[in-house]
Design goal:
By secondary structure, the chain is α+β, with helices and mostly antiparallel strands. 22% of the residues lie in helices and 27% in strands. It has two domains: 2-148, von Willebrand factor, type A domain (Rossmann fold); 163-246, Immunoglobulins (Immunoglobulin-like, Sandwich), CATH 2.60.40. The strands form five sheets. Strands 9-8-11-12 form a four-stranded antiparallel beta sheet, with no helix packed on it. The chain has a three-stranded parallel beta sheet with strand order 3-4-5. A hairpin with a 7-residue loop joins strand 13 and strand 14 (266-270).
Length: 291
């Protein structure tokens, strides 16, 4: 996910917006730089309240990391906002460019500062940080995930995880999902579905007593990936996943032409199931074509 900020933070895309590396890279290439003021505290609050919510794609069981990139000193209290995030277990990496205040970067960032604070003199030099920052981020995620696993009771298995996902009643614009619930009912289910070849994910949140859902307003003749995740107070069970395609829209058949005259003709056809209107296009045939 990515947000830009000046005096008014703006979400460019949510965590759930893209599902492939290529889509993310294309979004980065298309990004327009937002100039203006430097209200870093407001931006961190925006990330917490808008970008790290389940409906923006933040998964309950995932480690939460924020990378702050700034080229100036904050015009509001960045430290207070950063402390709020850190108190919630969100780790902050601070990267300064040009006129960034290193003392402020060190206040905002999480410990240990030798791994979470970076500062370069100009924007082209950011590329020199990519390799190290990638390794550090991946290592921190692994370390924190292992710690959570050690501190938390096992979150998978038949006790916490639904089984046997069935997809049925598939039409051109809907499908029905059903599953066998786990032994211990979850607090809720998150059902996420999106076109598997690229598209914005949509989400339905269900009460823990549910074991089925109807997905509607789908696109015809499209392969959809679906997932069903059980969510508990302090853990998440295994996610059920499936893939299926919606049906193509039915077509009219057996077109016939009759009652020809010098300036009119009648068309008739067998109806297309579910059609509410028809669009009939007529144009003169090109020279030399059969009448």
């Amino acid at each position: 996910g990515l947000s830009q900020y000046s005096s008014d933070p703006r979400t460019e895309w949510d965590l759930s917006a893209y599902s492939t590396r290529e889509q993310v890279l294309e979004a980065v290439r298309s990004l327009r730089y937002k100039g203006g003021n430097t209200f870093t505290g407001l931006a961190l609050t925006h990330v917490l309240e808008q970008n790290l919510k389940p409906d923006a794609g933040a998964r309950l069981e995932a480690e939460k990391l924020v990378i702050l990139l700034t080229d100036g000193k904050s015009q509001d209290d960045a430290n207070l906002a950063a402390q709020t995030l850190k108190n919630l277990g969100i780790e902050i990496f601070a990267i300064g460019v040009k006129n960034a205040d290193e003392a402020e970067l060190r206040q905002v960032a999480s410990e240990p500062l030798e791994l979470t604070v970076y500062n370069v003199l100009d924007f082209p030099l950011l590329s020199s940080l990519v390799g190290k920052l990638t390794r550090v981020l991946c290592t921190r995620i692994r370390e924190r995930s292992h710690k959570e696993t050690a501190d938390t009771p096992a979150s998978t298995g038949p006790q916490l995880s639904p089984t046997d996902l069935k997809i049925s009643a598939v039409t051109s614009k809907s499908m029905h999902l059903a599953w066998s619930p786990p032994l211990r009912p979850p607090k809720k289910y998150r059902v996420v579905y999106y076109p598997s070849k690229g598209g914005t994910p949509r989400e339905v949140v269900l009460e823990g007593a549910a074991s089925s859902v109807q997905l509607s307003n789908l696109t015809s003749h499209t392969e959809y990936a679906v997932s069903v995740m059980p969510v508990y107070d302090s853990a998440a069970g295994d996610t059920l996943r499936g893939v299926t395609s919606t049906l193509p829209l039915s077509s009219p058949r057996s077109l016939r032409v009759s009652e020809l005259s010098h300036n009119s003709l009648r068309l008739s056809w067998k109806a297309a199931q579910g059609a509410t209107h028809y669009l009939v296009l007529c144009s003169a045939a090109p020279d030399g074509a059969e009448d």
